[in-house]
Amino acid sequence: MTAPWITYRPALKVLDCTIRDGGLVNDHLFDDGFVRAVYMACVEAGIDYMEIGYKADKKMFARDKFGAWKHCDEDDLRRIVGENPSDLKLSAMIDAGKTDWRHDVLPKDQSVLSLLRVAFYAPQVSEAADMIKDAKDKGYEVSANLMAVTTAKEQEIDQVLEVLATTPADVIVVVDSYGSMYAETVELLVKKYLQYAKDTGKEVGMHAHNNQQLAFANTIEAIIHGANRVDASMMGLGRGAGNCPMELLIGFLRNPKFRIRPIWRVIQDHLLPLSQKVEWGPYPQYNVTGQLNEHPRTAIQARSGEKRDCYVDFYDRLTSDV
Amino acid sequence: MTAPWITYRPALKVLDCTIRDGGLVNDHLFDDGFVRAVYMACVEAGIDYMEIGYKADKKMFARDKFGAWKHCDEDDLRRIVGENPSDLKLSAMIDAGKTDWRHDVLPKDQSVLSLLRVAFYAPQVSEAADMIKDAKDKGYEVSANLMAVTTAKEQEIDQVLEVLATTPADVIVVVDSYGSMYAETVELLVKKYLQYAKDTGKEVGMHAHNNQQLAFANTIEAIIHGANRVDASMMGLGRGAGNCPMELLIGFLRNPKFRIRPIWRVIQDHLLPLSQKVEWGPYPQYNVTGQLNEHPRTAIQARSGEKRDCYVDFYDRLTSDV
Lengths: 322, 322
What we know:
The structure is a homodimer.
Chain A: E1 13-16, H1 18-22, H2 32-45, E2 49-54, H3 74-81, E3 89-95, H4 101-104, E4 113-120, H5 125-137, E5 141-146, H6 154-165, E6 171-175, H7 183-198, E7 203-207, H8 215-224, E8 229-232, H9 246-252, H10 261-275, H11 284-291, H12 297-304, H13 311-319
Parallel strand pairs in A: 1-2, 1-8, 2-3, 3-4, 4-5, 5-6, 6-7, 7-8
């Protein structure tokens, strides 16, 4: 039997989204020690990018209601990373419809951020295209992240990809917002995205959610079919069912620059304690919304209420005809 | 985008191993109510087989040290299932080297069991072949389960499969004992097993462990490549990291005979309470032994001790050169 993946693909880059996607679990209220520990783990593990939060509009998301990583002001970033004297590149997400990007995205020479990822739903593609151009003009690497693609029609996806192909985005990411994809969906979408991306020199990425315990498997599947940018998070921290666990992904990849020991360290010292205060992971309600290809909001509500262990009731509610 | 698996394969059969593999977590000490609830859930969910335990040698495994499902005497079986007036077929596992099979395997007309699964390591293949013939002569369906295949050499695997091809076994199962397989290993082994199985009319099966959160994904992969017998367990109950979760598998399969609601019911009422008393699942130590392709015994020990949350220490011990 051939040893699996005994070689590696140098072009493959890993993005850690622990603090960014994890911030959706606790309104970004991480203490500085936690954020710094994840940053140091990423540096020591040889990870390529760390996404630290959002640059959300302060008129829509008040500063006193969220942690600093909802807005990622430069002062907050530098408090953790200084001038970021490392090979790790920093990233923030900017959401269409929720970001004052003309004002809040600074020229690159004023920022420690290197990458901006534009998140949007299919109907928001025109604003997304403007955001991509603006961020590129300001000097950043730019990623286009079409969310909830599993509920978009094939024609919509094609139209979005046609628009994205005309933008200066460096990366287009297959985003499994609802954790509903199986391997064949991943294959289909990665191949489709690559068709549009290849001619314009863009890379394709994968962002998986773990509703059906498939986040890691789907990330491998995306890699097999040519995705060169993959997201993961320490201990899978992320909204709802969480993301692809970094400790599994790094155990799989064969690039000798990656080190898994710093990841076990930050999980042991920081993620495990956090998991005793806030909840994420592939619990039954997330299995159900993933199977039904639905937004996890009903599952998040169910997990936080008194009926958190009433799985049959939850299943009945989501599958009732009335 | 084409809807995934909108049709189904009637030949695909599902085996529930909740009580059998789960018995390795608690020395088979389930109370009758638990076993009956799993049995009823299997019947109502339309599952094809339920594996209820072992027929272990009582001289090696004393009756007073284990629950009834270590030995599966007919009286114990009938106390739960009566004459089993259902379409669900019952199964027991018989281990090479640990079973007094000549004496303890009764003629089929004296048993409520329908299927016997012969578990063995590669060097035990000669006894396994005798056990397969004996069980077949006594009237059972028979499955051949080569364990720990990921540590066997390719030549050994081929030799075992050559022997199995000459036996009257109905099924040959790809067994990922250490939870170390990735999709490509599954593809390779399922195709190899099918080569030997097809000419003699045998089916190929898949038994996955969840060390790397890949049990469900690997089970799907096996199905894609032609496996028609797949194992799963309620809430993934099984030794160490556990098995492929039945609630995920049944959510994926499209055969209308399957029902998921009874599975949520038994998980809510019986598996969740059990999970508060005994532990299974893809905890960090199981990730590590899966990545290293090792038996989970060191991980099981680590999880039961005071250093259960010392992941770095565990990683260092397993990867030390001295």
